[in-house]
Amino acid sequence: MNISRRQMLRVGALGTSLSLSSFLCLQAAQGQTDSGRSAILVFLGGGPSHQDTFDMKPAAPAEYRGQFSPIGTSVPGIQICEHLPKLAKRADKYAIIRGISHSLADHGLGTRYLMTGNLPTPVVNYPMYGSIVSREMPAAEDLPSFVSIDRPVEGPGYLGAEYGPLSTGEKPRFGQPFRVRGITLDDTLTIDKYRSRSRLRDDLENAFDGFESLDDSVRSLDRFSEQAFRIISSPRARNAFDLSRESDHEVDRFGRHEFGQSAMLATRLIEAGVRFVTVLLEGWDTHQDNFNTLGRQLLPDFDQSFSAMLDRLDRQGLLDSTSILVTGEFGRTPKVNSNAGRDHWARAMCALMAGADVRAGQVIGSTDDKAQGPDNVGFTPDDLAATFLRNIGVDPKREYEANVGRPITVIRDGDVIPGLLGGR
To answer: Which of 26, 25, 15, 24 is nearest to 196 (CA)?
Structure first.
């Protein structure tokens, strides 16, 4: 026989059991540090318009300021967009970071930069924040550490596939059964059938005994396959993903749209003990019809669901231990184009942070009078990443061994943004 045991395992001979086992493999890494915190990353894919959301310029010429008006918030002196009334009432629960600036006005590169905190390079494949948290602070054995609702935004990089997210494979939709790939058992895969597949795995492993010496990864598959079974059969894990347990009132608070259901799911996962959750709200690439797209759908949906998330975490006593970051990959051009849209603009963008040690109810940083770039000193995505990780309880200057022949600093060039952290 020419195929090795390792090769058989790699091609997925065990189907569902192996796919989840691969996700779990080697998560028991050495040298982990646990702050007891969790995190949620809300990624506004496409590049939200900073000057139409949280960095408005009402005194700028009309072709710069756009069609929206600012409104006051619960914090004197802070104004945000009129289409964010719920968040305006909760301005004391988050901080606005303005004047974030970089030079990668490309969706792929910009996303990689904002999701890893390191300038992309062909030499090193940097890990996403959730993978770092998964390595440092694994969840309980019957829960995934890192969940990405729908699809992964970025990958685990040099940390390896075992620290990648468990992706649900789709967004939850109101009124439709939500099946989580690898966890929710459908009508064709019962617990008993899963046990049968587990026994088949044991038979295959016995058949391949002696074909090659086993490395640590292969030797540990038994242990992680057992952990995969514990997750699949765990009432806690299955209940965490079950949105049908939510009341109609709570569903209405979050919203019966995809982002509302995703935000509610993220909150449930944090409540259950998952350490890092990524939520996507895409569609911000508004080269045309910017104001209708934002005003009629994106901003109202975000306003409703993110407000509900903040309220629920606060009510459950979890906002003090949950670090939240809201960001896109870049901002948009200060001047409105001929299609009533705004194009890519990396020289200025904004972000929100909340929870844990964030000093909420303030604005950090600023841009010039047309939102073209930072006013005086700005911040980099590296700085934002260092602050986010510090707020989770991970040292951004920690070093990891990788396959490039030298230790790699988690966030090489960034520093914690002064004044943003310090307790609530």
So the answer is: 15
Whether residue 254 sits in one domain with residue 126: yes
State how far the Cα of 242 lies from the Cα of 387, in Å rounded to an integer. 32
Residue 344: phi, psi to the nearest 5?
A: -65, 140
Could you tell me the two tokens for 82?
Answer: 């009129």
Residue 169 within any structural domain of the chain: yes
pLDDT tens by residue, 54-75: 999 999 999 999 999 999 999 9
SS3 at position 255 = coil
User: 402 in a domain, yes or no?
Assistant: yes
Do the Cβ atoms of 180 and 169 come closer than 8 Å? yes
Q: Compute φ and ψ for 32, nearest 5 degrees.
A: -80, 150
Extract the residue ranges of the chain whose pLDDT is less than 50: 1-30, 185-187, 189, 204, 211-224, 424
- Long-range CB contact pairs, 136-140, < 8 A, 24+: 136/32, 136/33, 136/34, 136/394, 137/32, 137/33, 137/34, 137/35, 137/37, 137/275, 137/392, 137/393, 137/394, 138/27, 138/28, 138/29, 138/32, 138/275, 139/273, 139/274, 139/275, 140/236, 140/273
pLDDT, position 229:
64
Give the count of beta carbons closer than 10 Å to the beta carbon of residue 108. Answer: 11
Decide the pairing of beta strands 344-345 and 362-364. Answer: unpaired
Amino acid sitting at position 306: F
In the block, residue with structure tokens 């999701």: 115
Per-residue model confidence (pLDDT) at position 23 = 46
pLDDT at 182: 55
Residues 245 and 312 reside in one and the same domain: yes
CA 248 centroid distance within chain:
26
Given CA atoms 86, 91, 94, 97 in this order, what sign does their dihedral have? positive
